C-alpha cells in the first residue's frame, strides 16, 4: 500500500474535492489525511459518524504530541475520525498558526503514512490533502515518502503554466534535476486536470506535450470532471445520486488507471488484509465504495470539499 499526495500550486483548483472524491472510491481501505499547513476544511463542512461535529482537536493537532515521541504507523488510527458516510479521516489543523506544532515532524509523518500499508492489523493507503504548496512549504517534506505526487490543476492557460513550473520545481527537489520521458523519477509526479469532460482529451494531449518539453518528468494521469453539482453532493450540501455524478464517475476512472499502472507495486500483507475484511458488521469498512451502505451513498454531510 502507499502514500498518495495531492497538492496544487496556486488558487483554488479543488484539491480537497479531488482528495475526498478519490478516497471515496479508492478500491482498498483509505485514510484521508488533511495535511494542509494552512488548515483543513472537513471539520467545518462534514458531520461525524455519530451525527455531530467532528472534533477539531483530534487529528493532525493531536498527532503532533505523539509524533514528537516517535510514531508507530498504527498509532495513526488513534487520531482518526469516521465521517457519516464511513470515510476515515485525520482532521486538519484549525488555523495556519497551529502548523508551528508540526515543525520538523513532516518527515516523521510521511514515513508513518507510507508504512501504514505494512500494518499487521489495519493496513491502508493514505491520501494526503496538502493544499497549496510553494518552494518553502514544509509539508513538501512528506513528498519524498510518497508513491505518487498528484498536482491538481484547472485548465486555464495560467493554471497550466503554473502546474508545469511546479512540476519542474518538484522534479528538481525530489529527483535532483529535470527529467525526460525515458527517466521518470520516484515518487512519480502526476497531474490531474479538472476539466470539462467534453474537451478533456485534447487538453490532456496539450498539457502532456508541455510537460515533456519542459522535461518535468510529470505526466497527466487523468481528469476529474468539472462538476459543481457533484461537488455540492460530495460536500453534503446537496442531495442526489452521488454515485451517478460526473465527478464520482471520473474519480473511479482515475483510480482505476492509477491502479492499473502502479498498483502492482503496492503490496498488501495477505494476513492483515484477510483480518480486515473479516471485521464484524457495523465496523468501518474500506472507505470509499460510493453507493454502498455505510459509505458515500449521497448522504448529506459524509464528506467535505471545496478547496
Characterization of the model:
Helix content is 32%, strand content 15%. Strand 7, helix 6 (200-213) and strand 8 (219-225) form a beta-alpha-beta unit. Helix 1 crosses helix 8. It is globular and about 45 Å long. The protein has 307 residues and is of the alpha/beta class. The protein starts with a strand and ends in a 30-residue tail after the last helix.
User: N- to C-terminal separation?
Assistant: 26 Å
How many β-strand stretches? 8
Tell me, briefly, the overall form.
globular
Biggest β-sheet: strands ordered side by side in the sheet: 3-4-2-5-1-6-7-8
What letter string, H or E per element, gives the SSE order? Answer: EHEHHEEHEEHEHEHHH
Main structural class: alpha/beta
Averaging pLDDT over every residue, what do you get?
83
Q: What is the beta-strand fraction?
A: 5-15%
Major sheet summary line: 8 strands, mixed
Question: How many helices does DSSP assign?
Answer: 9
- Name the poorly predicted regions: 269-289, 291-307
Provide the gyration radius in Å: 18 Å
* DSSP helix fraction: 25-40%
Amino acid at each position: 500500500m502507499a502514500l498518495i499526495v495531492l497538492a496544487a500550486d496556486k488558487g483554488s483548483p479543488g484539491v480537497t474535492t479531488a482528495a475526498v472524491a478519490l478516497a471515496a472510491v479508492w478500491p482498498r481501505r483509505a485514510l484521508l489525511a488533511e495535511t494542509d499547513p494552512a488548515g483543513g476544511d472537513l471539520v467545518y463542512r462534514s458531520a461525524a459518524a455519530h451525527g455531530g461535529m467532528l472534533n477539531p482537536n483530534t487529528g493532525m493537532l493531536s498527532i503532533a504530541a505523539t509524533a514528537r515521541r516517535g510514531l508507530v504507523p498504527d498509532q495513526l488510527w488513534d487520531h482518526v475520525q469516521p465521517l457519516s458516510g464511513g470515510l476515515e479521516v485525520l482532521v486538519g489543523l484549525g488555523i495556519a498558526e497551529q502548523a508551528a506544532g508540526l515543525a520538523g515532524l513532516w518527515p516523521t509523518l510521511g514515513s508513518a503514512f507510507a508504512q501504514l500499508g505494512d500494518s499487521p492489523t489495519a493496513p491502508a493507503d493514505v491520501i494526503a490533502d496538502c493544499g497549496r504548496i510553494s518552494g518553502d512549504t514544509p509539508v513538501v517534506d512528506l513528498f519524498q515518502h510518497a508513491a505518487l505526487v498528484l498536482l491538481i490543476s484547472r485548465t486555464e492557460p495560467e493554471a497550466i503554466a503554473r502546474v508545469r513550473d511546479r512540476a519542474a520545481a518538484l522534479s528538481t527537489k525530489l529527483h535532483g534535476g529535470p527529467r525526460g520521458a525515458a527517466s521518470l523519477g520516484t515518487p512519480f509526479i502526476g497531474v490531474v486536470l479538472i476539466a470539462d469532460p467534453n474537451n478533456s482529451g485534447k487538453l490532456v494531449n496539450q498539457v502532456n506535450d508541455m510537460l515533456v518539453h519542459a522535461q518535468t518528468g510529470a505526466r497527466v494521469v487523468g481528469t476529474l470532471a468539472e462538476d459543481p453539482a457533484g461537488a455540492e453532493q460530495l460536500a453534503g450540501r446537496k442531495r442526489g445520486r452521488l454515485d451517478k455524478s460526473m465527478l464520482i464517475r471520473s474519480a473511479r476512472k482515475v483510480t482505476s488507471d492509477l491502479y492499473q499502472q502502479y498498483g502492482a507495486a503496492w503490496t498488501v500483507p495477505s494476513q492483515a488484509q484477510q483480518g480486515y475484511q473479516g471485521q464484524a458488521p457495523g465496523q468501518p469498512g474500506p472507505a470509499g465504495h460510493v453507493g454502498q451502505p455505510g459509505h458515500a451513498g449521497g448522504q448529506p454531510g459524509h464528506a467535505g470539499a471545496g478547496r
